[in-house]
Amino acid sequence: DIQMTQSPSSLSASVGDRVTITCRASQSISSYLNWYQQKPGKAPKLLIYAASSLQSGVPSRFSGSGSGTDFTLTISSLQPEDFATYYCQQSYSTSPTFGPGTKVDIK
Amino acid sequence: EVQLVQSGAEVKKPGESLKISCKGSGYSFTSYWIGWVRQMPGKGLEWMGIIYPGDSDTRYSPSFQGQVTISADKSISTAYLQWSSLKASDTAMYYCARPPSGRPSDAFDIWGQGTMVTVSS
Lengths: 107, 121
Description:
The complex is a heterodimer of chains A (about 110) and B (about 120).
Chain A: E1 4-7, E2 10-13, E3 19-25, E4 33-38, E5 45-49, E6 53-54, E7 62-67, E8 70-75, E9 84-90, E10 97-98, E11 102-106
Parallel strand pairs in A: 2-11
Antiparallel strand pairs in A: 1-3, 3-8, 4-5, 4-9, 5-6, 7-8, 9-10, 9-11
Chain B: E1 3-6, E2 10-12, E3 18-25, E4 34-39, E5 45-52, E6 57-60, E7 69-73, E8 78-83, E9 92-98, E10 110-111, E11 115-119
């Protein structure tokens, strides 16, 4: 299996802050990297697919970058509704795997 | 509207069998893969496996191969996840989800609401 790591595991931020979350794959996955947002008690929501493509309906303050093994999710100006847990997922292999998640909470 | 609607919460005893369901609507059920994702209490997401209802082609994560069975009944647009003998460690929320394209490992853009399975003696 391809192992995914994320950093930080959690962060505290204020409304309006720029937030960056990093995801690393244990081997090259080209651009087969997706980002999800999950709020408590809810199903995950796809934000970014193929490393940098914004899913329809997702605000433009979310962006993704990277290729190979290193990827980032950036929220340009954190909004109250963005406090959640964020997961990366590799879709390169026939057995996709998720990162452990990054919890973003209010400072 | 494209939707996946899952069956309700279950409480079972260790050793019992269980089959949970995921009904698709608003799209051609036989033309898209449907996958299953586990989330244990307070933990992250785990990709379990996926099925193509059109021909029942099924793929499993090595971690779940032999532990669960994924199936589908295209006549009623429903996918299933089943266990033959539950363990306490199967306690989790289970989501079904659908990728937007024909590639089984692609991102999931449509999700069910989740089915909570609790296994306790």
